[in-house]
Sequence to fold (154 residues):
Amino acid sequence: MSTPSPTRMTAVLSSEHRARLLGIAREVKLPEGTRIFEEGRLADRFWIIQSGTVTLDIDVPGRRPVVIENLGFGELVGWSWLFPPYLWQLGAEAMTLVRAQEFNASTVRMMMDADPALGSAIGQWVGRVLAHRLHAARIRLLDLYAPHGSGLTQ
Fold:
């Protein structure tokens, strides 16, 4: 039996908060190869994957973008929508056909402002995701760029 991911919405939000959030979701299909967002562009929405795979990547000058993490069922795609100046910090691409629930970021931020308990819960959820993604990015970049035998990946 596998343990649910601590970054999934179901691991952090109460059933009441999940229901409120999912009540404003819009079902979308993202074809394989779709660039969902680009680093540095406006972060005005986010997604929860229902099926398929999304890769997160980071621009590396002089090289192709480096894949940081692969996301699947139940995972949050995008966290930059919550923090001013609301610009994507990573890029994302659909590696397969992706079915997802899409959320309008400004609507969710207004809901969070209107209900501090909901705002706190969503903030904690996105914070967990952010901490996980930063750790994944650090490990991936160390794998790629740390000198072998340096001890930096321990």
User: Anything to note?
Assistant: The first strand starts at residue 26 and ends at 30.
